[in-house]
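Protein Entry — a single chain follows
Next Lines — sequence and tokenised fold
***
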Amino acid sequence: MDSFEINKIIAAVLLVALIIIGIGKISDIAFHVEKPKETAYKIEIPDSKSFSDTKVEEVVEKVDISALLALGDITHGEKVFKKCAACHLVNKGGENKIGPALYGILGRKVASKEDYKYSKAMAAYNKNWTFEEMNGYLRKPQSHIKGTKMAFAGLRKDKDRASVILFLNKNSDNPLPLP
């Protein structure tokens, strides 16, 4: 290929670029649209006083725990628990990992394992691990107990949560009776 052909290719590319830019400029002139001087949709922002007066009520979703647990299966829970096994052990006499050992957790007070250092939020959460509490926590730990250091997104599927709860309940010296 000689230099004359390379010049023709470069000229063709430049001509196409100029034509595209020119068409854009001509269409802007031909179809000129004036912008409105004032906004079409006015949004009224209430005073900060009205925000402080309103009480925000926390919506707690009631779950029929017996119907939820009916969806679960212990063998499926053992498979799903593998997501948790990176941080927790569930066998009797198991040691703490990143998270506390979970043997016999259902029915126990939250943050009651002596040889594990819980976050301040977990230590201040003064409840027992019931089926309902475990379901709420497994759904989304960060929103159920705000300030927990457990960095797990949660289990969205009802069957997965129910199965893990049944699996955790089975791994106990005194499993809780199913509702």
